[in-house]
Amino acid sequence: MLNNMTDTEEGEGGPNSQGDGNPKESSPFINSSSASDVEKSQQYDGKNMALFEEEMDNSPMVSSILSSLANYSNLPQGSKEHEEAENEEGAAPSKKKPAVKAPSLGTLMGVYLPCIQNIFGVILFLRMTWMVGIGGVFGSFFIVFMCCSTTMLTAISMSAIATNGVVPAGGSYYMISRSLGPEFGGAVGICFYLGTTFAGAMYILGAIELLLVYILPQAAAMLNNMRVYGTIVLSFMATVVFVGVKYVNKLALVFLACVILSILAVYAGVIKTAIEPPVFPVCILGNRTLISKGFDVCAKVIEQDNGTITTKLWRIFCDSEFLNATCDEYFANNNVSEIQGIPGVTSGILAENLFGYYLEKGDFLEKRGLSAVQDQEVPITNSNRYVLADITSFFTLLVGIYFPSVTGIMAGSNRSGDLRNAQRSIPIGTIAAITTTSTVYMSAVVLFGACIEGVVLRDKFGEGVNGNLVIGTLAWPSPWVIVIGSFFSTCGAGLQSLTGAPRLLQAISRDSVIPFLKVFGQGKANGEPTWALLLTASICEIGIIIASLDAVAPILSMFFLMCYMFVNLACALQTLLRTPNWRPRFKFYHWALSFLGMSLCLSLMFICSWYYAIVAMVIATCIYKYIEFAGAEKEWGDGIRGISLSAARYALMRLEEGPPHTKNWRPQILVLLSMDAEQNVEQPRLLSLTNQLKAGKGLTIVGTSVVGTFLNNHAEAQKAEQVCNVWKLMETEKVKGFSQVVISSNLRDGTSHLIQVGGLGGLKHNTVLVSWPRTWKQPEDNLRFRNFIEVVRETTAANMALLVPKNIAAYPSNGERFTEGHIDVWWIVHDGGMLMLLPFLLRQHKVWRKCKMRIFTVAQMDDNSIQMKKDLITFLYHLRIDAEVEVVEMHDSDISAYTYEKTLVMEQRSQILKQMHLTKNEMERESVAVSRPKQVQLIQNKNATPTSPTSPTTPAGGAATPGQEMQMTWTDKAENQAAAAHPEQGGVKDIFNMKPNQSNVRRMHTALRLNEVIMKKSKEAKLVLLNMPGPPKNRMGEDNYMEFLEVLTEGLNRVLLVRGGGREVITIYS
């Protein structure tokens, strides 16, 4: 090839002869003058790829593909626009805008530290010690281990998904939606959004609790203080997020430092207790813990100046300060003792805190091991002086409250757009963060139980230790380290939630999977989700109104657990389906681990709160169904589609095991449509009838044929199937099924192919629905009705049922309703029960529901009509079909002259048509014969009259001499000429002298008699169903067959001709 090209290239251009002396191959674009072609010629010139030059437009070179893939940038959606908008605001218009920086965050700053910050939160500081005191060390350790195992298994599944290709911005929502499809993705995305939003409410409530209980307790005087202060803080945070997200991001490290310093202070305090335990005395009356406020000395009396005086504690429980005062009976019968709240890690208090101590609401916090004297009959007084349980506690409550403290594992994947190498950073950073936090949590459970007295652990708000934060009493150097640090960390976490949740909602909205959320995809010019932030703040206010950290925590636990469950499900499905695209770089995963994680998530949902779990599932299900019916269709190559393919293959293989039982038989319909020249459907009401027959059940294939060749007419076929009209019409008529367009050299073969190969395996059609060719008598439609008869023959040969609606345009649309009327069935021959089944199916649809069913059968002279009626009523009773029954007697009668005359006219017309309508091939052969004078000497004057209208030479001669007019005058001369030219066909005189065939006379007699009876009984019926006679075995009688059917149904408005498929389709057995 090089040798052949060299001379031409040197002669034309010359450049190929210069340079290194090696000739180059010419580019396929060398002769093009357009700029784009010149670029292409430069691109492919000298690539030694002339063999593929015709495919370069559609199949680019590997080098260009590799270049584009290597330069892929996974910047988060909208970040480029956001940075450009900020540059436009801050820079002068004349200055050139700086380029968008590529992602540069590594594992530590991009994944590990954000996960640490999101996982450690308000629960650790406000509820961890209380959980250990209530659940015991064993119970709390089990809760922590179970929750941390769930998040670790979820992180393993998430790592596998995240490393299976490039992860654009979108985090968990992107991974779930692209793995499980838009329905699951949208439902779980909304759940994750709601969980993040309620997490913001929980953090705000935690911050308010820290503020009002530990920092400024004097500000907690007003009614509904949590709701009022919470709303104020929420408004402030939403304003901060609205004004500038960059300030929130810059403060993130400060908040993270507060969390780490607080945790280090706790560990330092634990070490300090081993050396010198801090002094936090707790006052116990009998075995009940007293609120430390209101007294200064934990004693009833003290010795002072050689005298005994009462203390403030005495005055609280007695009516005076004197020793002879009347006191509370429990106070009088029990001693006051003081115990050390933080005995230290070496004190052995761990043994006392190993087991749980669950309390009812209003119970006293009692010290284990101390005896107390109490008269059960004496009513309790001064209960407000004791530390009481504020809620009823139980194991599942502790799980629901604690689980939010292990959420936040998605923080790294949510920043996937900012990571330098997301496939490496997300698994390492997330698993390392979970390992670190799990170690801290599990060690904290043991250390809290080993260092702190049980009654102090169970004291949720530190009322027995002077109102100090319980975990703060353990911290070193001061409790304020924990209080201030936890306050700022909860505020930061709340800001992060209010920042992340609107962006998640914006991502869902921009995916257009939930139509009514489209408005929340809009925002400011720089991409900030203004409307989404407003909705987030509104939902967050619901959590603030609840005003209880313990009540809000299980709510967000539900939504996070559901999200984690579907992450595990996505990984398990992808692994089990073994889709070719499932090639994660993270190899330490297994489908069993994913299923275990999914099972844990589902179990924890119902352990935390079964009613919240049901509500969350109902919300997710409603969103799923809404997206399924109203959402935009997305094809993301998700795992659910893989499941559908596997399930379909399995079901098809099962169907192949044998034919369906009669009880399972239903019409699986192949609808044969015909298209006009504009590729529009000619009989749209066929699909209306299909919908009324099927009601969305079973298989429906809508097929049509296009004349041509596949290579030349493929685009036309696609247009007919997709753009024009078949799919649109199916959607309009609500027909659930498949469309198939076949390209063939002629319509007959195309229809035959559809009947033969439609469907797949055991899911094939068993019924063909085709419209009656209403213009079959017209000469130009001669081919159409012959195709129709061939369809009848082929369905009979294939043992398929055939439905032929006549006057299809008169059939009702899906929007019409019949308020009364009858569906009449004329049961003449047994067809397997099709005539019984079809009216039943039609009456399931709202169009025909009000119509009553009548069944007519025909009795001959030898039949007992009374017994036939009884038998038919019994048969219908066993079939569970309600219908009126009537037996019509048809006695033998003489064949009338009208029957002879109609038969004779039919046969004469048939013979005339055979002589007049030549096929195209015969016309061509006749033209060839006329053009050869040696074979046929035919001299015809231009103005002469044609020999005969029935002669084959007439069309040929007419075609050869344009302008001639055909005369339809029958003369002897014309007959003689016709007979001379074609003696084998006979003359016209023979046609008029012919006698009718006796077989045809009998068939015409039957058709006329039946039509007479049907018209008498069913003229006003809304629909008439009757048996369709079979086609003639001799193809010479096809015209007569159509005439018989026409006579049989003459005068009826809507007729459905039914031909059974040769098997029983209805049974009396259950």
From TrEMBL:
Keywords: Cell membrane, Chloride, Glycoprotein, Ion transport, Membrane, Phosphoprotein, Potassium, Potassium transport, Symport, Transmembrane, Transmembrane helix, Transport. Residues 15-36 have a biased composition (Polar residues). One of its GO terms (molecular function) is potassium:chloride symporter activity. Residues 684-804, 818-928, 996-1070 form the SLC12A transporter C-terminal domain. It catalyses: K(+)(in) + chloride(in) = K(+)(out) + chloride(out). Residues 944-963 have a biased composition (Low complexity). One of its GO terms (cellular component) is synapse. Belongs to the SLC12A transporter family. K/Cl co-transporter subfamily. PANTHER family: SOLUTE CARRIER FAMILY 12 MEMBER 5, SOLUTE CARRIER FAMILY 12, CATION COTRANSPORTERS. This is Solute carrier family 12 member 5b.
